[in-house]
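Late entry, evening session. Most of the bench is empty. Finally got around to the prediction I had been postponing all week. Sequence below, unchanged from the version circulated by S.P.
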Amino acid sequence: MKVSGITISYNSPAFKSIFERLFPAMCMLASRILKSEEKGEDIAQEAFVKLWQQKQDEEFTDENALQAYLYVLVKNACISHLRKEKNIKNTSIEEGLTVSDEAFLHEVLREETYQLLYDEIKKLSPQAELVVRLTLKGYTNQEIANELSVSINTVKTVKKRAYKALREGLGSQFVTILLTSFIQFF
């Protein structure tokens, strides 16, 4: 496979790096469509296997083109999985297939945005990263303090510093939108 004119073999560090960057987003997309984290991981792995098997001589203009191709693989694999699942249950196939192009694009945008946020959160100190992740899961400051065995004031201070770092990395309006939009998804 070639990305941006560079040949990447499937056992190379470059492929491993691409896999590590793109696999979480593919998992999240498939998990949301299938409403199962385990099935989502399986579908994402299958997408990378298909990429490896079918596209060894394929050339992608850049990593975004490769990512778009993987999103299509994941979407199609999810639809196939839902069809198989519905056939097993002997119900209408269309009943569970609500993956329209608009919904798919919405999920892709959500995954891209999530990936930006996730990348910035990983740059925080371990304690700040944990505080932000717990906040995104809906924990209150008191619940975070109890979970980490620290004072509530420590949580507030760590959270304030973490948000400042995220604002610097992503831009203040972007962080506000992210934190209010994604709190229910973690």
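Two things to note before I forget:
Residues 88-97 have pLDDT under 50 and may be disordered.
Residues 123-186 form a domain with the Arc Repressor Mutant, subunit A fold (CATH 1.10.10).
Will write this up properly tomorrow.
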